[in-house]
Design a protein that fits this description.
- The chain has 73 residues and is α+β, with helices and mostly antiparallel strands.
- The protein has a single domain (7-66), classed as 3-Layer(aba) Sandwich (DNA Methylphosphotriester Repair Domain), CATH 3.40.10.
- The chain has 2 helices and 4 strands.
- A 4-stranded mixed sheet has the order 3-1-2-4.
- Strand 1 and strand 2 (34-36) form a beta hairpin.
- It is globular, with a radius of gyration of 10 Å.
- It starts with 6 loop residues before the first helix and ends in a 7-residue tail after the last strand.
- The model has no long low-confidence stretch (mean pLDDT 93).
Amino acid sequence: MTVSLSPDAAYAASARRDATMDGTFFLAVLTTGIFCKPSCPARMPKRENARFYITAAAAEADGYRACKRCRPA
């Protein structure tokens, strides 16, 4: 399941660390296998390594684990 916003808009919100978008989508990082909230303080991945999900469960179903810094739920 992917995000209803465009991937570019979701990436831009994550780059701004926009806390108002928390719960709207989750950012998964292909190279590390983790997923975060948009407001996570962790380093931003390159755009080509970012995937976006509507729910944490969808990210987990694709094999990603939750970030230990932002604790997405």
